[in-house]
Design a protein that fits this description.
412 residues, alpha+beta, Rieske Iron-sulfur Protein, Naphthalene 1,2-dioxygenase Alpha Subunit, Chain A, domain 1, seven-stranded antiparallel beta sheet, 26% helix
């Protein structure tokens, strides 16, 4: 499902020489210099250098099941609308009228047969074409004033957008994720619940926190009722018997485990605790109407993470996604979404409190951790510190990706 053409060029950020020097002085394997977490000028640079040149996980087909359904996402000062044009086509546009720039869609989600600007009623069809503009001169050509599209890709029910032509190739990620995620049938899921959690911290601290479990034993008791703490038992390299049994169960269910890694993505199916069926506080299934109804045994959770803004989990009974959307240098909106089978009925097949309790608790704890981290980073005593090579490896990967991406932009 795609719909994109004539994409807007990436603006060239206006840089001062000391910003380039700052990136070149970053020490790999360590946290970043204070300015990279606290400077509004750095944030503005990142919006162009990092986010405009990346694939951003932006939602699910389950959020726009019918023609005309749409969602909007906010990235810094930029709003994007993602809309279902037809059963087989999803399109994304900058959420800006081509007349005088007003926002077209002013809510997080909705449904429309046409996109009508609330200011002067310029009207666009779902393909982004301008079809009505009142009292314009005779030489006005509506074909020159359609909505500005963004790249939009859908893989196994998950929607990704890219705001420029400079994003990396999507094909390898699709090739890796699709066979691993497709059995969970998210194309036939629905969003049972979603939240937007404002975190008053720099987006990189939010993502660094989400890329490690070094803090889990001290700060996430709810998560560790079901989640295996990878810092206590290196079960991937050591391959204990129970890990081999887990892989055999997945294979018997026809599932691909991975790992699959690329420059900007990481995909892996891994086990949850013995005797636990799902990522819930009591370990029981969150929903009796299963996403993967056939097969037997504990297939754990499939986790995929994409730079710079997301990670998700898909289990036999439900899925959870985490998206981080930077608003300004000290504000990040975290979107959490819980998906179940589209035929599941609340109160019969699942209870919302049971479905959401584990990740609600975890997200609230991570909000406090990221905000506390941001407070400390802003102080005079902050000096970049070293990461744990073993327990913060994914954080190191994230920071290295960030530095490589920023420095690549600086070279050009």
């Amino acid at each position: 499902m795609t719909g994109c053409s004539h994409h807007a060029p990436v603006p060239t950020p206006s840089l001062t020489p000391n910003l380039a020097d700052l990136y070149s002085q970053c020490r790999r394997g360590h946290t970043l210099p204070q300015t990279l977490y606290t400077s509004a000028a750095v944030f503005d640079f990142e919006m162009d250098a990092v986010f405009t040149r990346a694939w951003l996980q932006a939602g699910h087909l389950a959020e726009i099941p019918r023609t005309g359904d749409y969602i909007t996402v906010q990235l810094g000062k930029t709003s994007v609308v993602i809309i279902r044009e037809s059963e087989s086509v999803v399109r994304g546009y900058f959420n800006t009228c081509r007349h005088r720039g007003a926002l077209l869609c002013t809510s997080d989600k909705g449904s429309a047969r046409r996109l009508v600007c609330p200011y002067h009623q310029w009207t666009y069809d779902l393909g982004g074409n301008l079809i009505f503009a009142r009292n314009m001169p005779a030489d006005f050509d509506p074909r020159q004033h359609g909505l500005v599209p963004v790249h939009c890709e859908v893989v196994a029910g998950v929607i990704f957008i890219a705001l420029s032509d400079d994003a990396p190739d999507f094909a390898e990620f699709r090739h890796q994720l699709e066979p691993m995620l497709a059995p969970h049938d998210l194309e036939n899921a629905k969003v049972a619940h979603s939240v937007v959690l404002p975190e008053y911290a720099n987006w990189k601290l939010v993502m660094e926190n989400g890329r490690e479990c070094y803090h889990c034993s001290a700060r996430h008791p709810e998560l560790l009722t079901a989640f295996r703490d990878p810092t206590e038992d290196d079960y991937f390299d050591a391959q204990p018997d129970w890990m081999k049994d887990f892989e055999a169960v997945c294979h018997a269910n026809g599932l691909v485990n991975g790992p699959a890694e690329g420059a900007w993505f990481d995909i892996l199916r891994f086990p949850i605790k013995d005797g636990v069926e799902s990522l819930t506080l009591d370990g029981r299934l969150a929903c009796s109407q299963l996403l993967i109804p056939s097969g037997e045994g504990n297939i754990g959770t499939l986790r995929w993470a994409t730079e710079p803004n997301a990670f998700s989990h898909a289990l036999r009974d439900h899925a959870f996604s985490f998206e981080a959307w930077p608003i300004d240098v000290g504000t990040t909106h975290v979107r959490g979404k819980w998906l179940v089978h589209k035929n599941a009925v609340e109160g019969r097949d699942y209870e919302l409190a049971h479905l959401t309790a584990l990740w609600n608790a975890t997200n609230d704890q991570d909000k406090w951790l990221a905000e506390n981290n941001f407070k400390g980073v802003q102080g005079r005593g902050y000096v970049p510190g070293p990461f744990s090579v073993n327990d913060e490896k994914k954080v190191i990967d994230f920071v290295n990706w960030y530095l490589d991406t920023a420095q690549r932009c600086l070279r050009f």
